[in-house]
Design goal:
mainly beta; N-terminal domain of TfIIb; five-stranded antiparallel sheet
Length: about 60
């Protein structure tokens, strides 16, 4: 794991899911921001969250 690819904690505090406007959970190992309400995981590329619903993947609630 490359620890140089981190997301600014202040940025994480203000980001919300663009679909539900709900909170996001940062998954550092997967480099994703997860919206449990929407069931979507938004990728983080080169330290930049890609907050587009079209770029998000669906997540399984059981996982």
């Amino acid at each position: 794991m490359n620890d140089t690819t981190k997301v600014d904690p202040k940025l994480l505090e203000i980001l919300v899911c663009p679909v539900t406007k709900g909170p996001l959970v940062y998954d550092a190992p997967a480099q994703e921001l997860i919206s449990k309400q929407a069931g979507l995981a938004y990728p983080i590329r080169d330290g930049i969250p890609i907050m587009l619903a079209d770029e998000a993947r669906k997540v399984d609630d059981d996982a």
